Amino acid sequence: MPPSLGYGENGDGSDIPGQASLVFDVVLLDLHNPKDGITVEKLGVPETCQRQSKVGDFIRYHYNGTLMDGTFFDSSYSRKRTYDTYIGKGYVIAGMDEGLLGVCVGEKRRITIPPHLAYGEEGTGTEIPGSAVLIFDIDVIDFHNPSDTVEITTFFKPSKCDVLSKKGDFVKYHYNASLMDGTLIDSTHSYGKTYNVVLGSGQVVLGMDMGLKDMCIGEKRTVVIPPHLGYGERGVEGEVPGSAVLVFDIEMIDLEEGLPDGYMFVWNSDITPDLFTEMDKNLDGHVDPVEFSNYINHQVVTGKGKLAPGFDAGKIIDNMFSNQDRNSDGKITADEFKLKDEETKEHDEL
Question: Global pTM?
Answer without folding.
Answer: 0.80
